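input
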Amino acid sequence: MKLTCDEATQICDKSQYKEATLWEKIKLNLHLLLCRRCGLYSKQNNVMTKCLEKHKNEDCSKNNCLCAEEKEVMEKKLKENI
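output
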């Protein structure tokens, strides 16, 4: 049942997109209790996903590209949430 950090990050990614099985989620949560590095990865992954989802919904420009100011704002929000 031991999970490597590589496996944990893969399951973390799958879990965010609702593709992980219940067993994978259980193993991931046990691993996250013991591994700070993977816990940080999971937290950063969640923050990035939320920022990207929020940006998709805002549709700030016609071509959906971030301007320099939007990139700075996103970077600042990411750093605040980490």
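quick obs: The mean pLDDT is 86.
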